[in-house]
Amino acid sequence: MSVREEFDEWATSGRDRGMEERHWHTAKEALARMPVEPGDVVLDLGCGSGYAGRALRDTYDAGRVYGLDGAPEMARNARSYTDDPNVGYVVGDFGALPFVDDSIDHVWTMEAFYYAADPHEALAEIARVLRPGGTLYCAVNYYEENVHSHEWQEFISIEMTRWNREQYREAFRTAGLHVAEQDNIPDREITIPAEAEFPLEDWDTREEMVERYREFGTLLTVGVAP
Ligand SMILES: C[S@@+](CC[C@H](N)C(=O)[O-])C[C@H]1O[C@@H](n2cnc3c(N)ncnc32)[C@H](O)[C@@H]1O
């Protein structure tokens, strides 16, 4: 199955908004760290419902925001959630970004990067479009140290890349980006039921759920274009 087939179905069944709700818990903390200045051009890769770009427009007065997604129905939904003329959504692939060299100030990507058919090619593309001094904020919940995420691949038809923290840093450097920061952002908002309520459908023990959300949370790696 292609990105388009998999995620068009998610979009038409409303899962784009569901992801937004869940991802917002940690995404907002990562977005708050981005050094976006008024007027900057921002690209959101694998934008889903497009919430991140809209938030960056609202809070930082970003000049122009592009959301790129491989699933046309995702881009269509995202477009329908805003009438802001400075936010645009395009259908495209991480492996061939439809932007000229040195044209983007900041790239944001949340829970999407690891779907790239070739993540090294995607990083090279990001490095190509970033202006000198531009940043990449790459946030993932699916990564090696987060053992609770490993089974997700069983439920998705697209091959997912499961790197560890070091592999992210190494790949950023290989693409020519400096690694400015790497951090785990805990999800402090998800409700964790009392011990007596376990096991739950998805969790055998409360400790596992606490580890997944409060300890591992979202892995954020920040790159800077030289
Ligand atoms: C799990 S969703 C995350 C959406 C959003 N960033 C969020 O935080 O809710 C991943 C998104 O990335 C898109 N995507 C996956 N692989 C892609 C690729 N190679 N090129 C472009 N978009 C891709 C999917 O269509 C989907 O909308």
How would you sum up this structure in a few lines?
Helices cover 35% and strands 22% of the residues. The chain has helices at 3-12, 15-32, 51-60, 72-80, 119-129, 165-174, 206-216; strands at 41-45, 64-69, 87-91, 104-110, 130-140, 178-185, 218-224.
Task: Name the descriptors.
Rossmann fold, 7-stranded mixed beta sheet, globular, alpha/beta, 226 residues, binds S-adenosylmethionine, 7 strands, 35% helix
What can you tell me about this protein's structure?
- With 226 residues, this protein is of the alpha/beta class.
- It has a single domain (3-224), classed as Vaccinia Virus protein VP39 (Rossmann fold).
- Helix content is 35%, strand content 22%.
- The chain contains seven helices and seven strands, in the order ααβαβαββαβαβαβ.
- It has helices at residues 3-12, 15-32, 51-60, 72-80, 119-129, 165-174, 206-216, and strands spanning 41-45, 64-69, 87-91, 104-110, 130-140, 178-185, 218-224.
- Strands 3-2-1-4-5-7-6 form a seven-stranded mixed β-sheet, sandwiched between helices.
- α3 (51-60) links the parallel β1 (41-45) and β2.
- α2 (15-32) runs parallel beside α3 (51-60).
- The longest helix has 18 residues, at 15-32.
- The termini are far apart.
- The relative contact order is 0.15.
- The structure holds S-adenosylmethionine.
| Strand coverage percent | 15-25%
Counting helices, strands and paired strands, the structural category is: alpha/beta
Radius of gyration: 17 Å
Give the overall pLDDT as a whole number.
97
Q: How many strand units?
A: 7
* Distinct compounds present: S-adenosylmethionine
**Order of helix and strand elements from N to C terminus:** HHEHEHEEHEHEHE
Q: Which outline best applies?
A: globular
CATH class: Alpha Beta
Through-space gap between termini: 37 Å
User: Biggest sheet: strands side by side, in what order?
Assistant: 3-2-1-4-5-7-6
CATH superfamily: Vaccinia Virus protein VP39
Number of helices: 7
Secondary-structure arrangement, i.e. CATH architecture? 3-Layer(aba) Sandwich
Counting structural domains, the number is: 1
Report the helical percentage.
Answer: 25-40%
CATH topology, which one?
Rossmann fold
For the largest beta-sheet, the strand count, sense and barrel status come to: 7 strands, mixed
Q: Which regions are unreliable across 5 or more consecutive residues at pLDDT < 50?
A: none
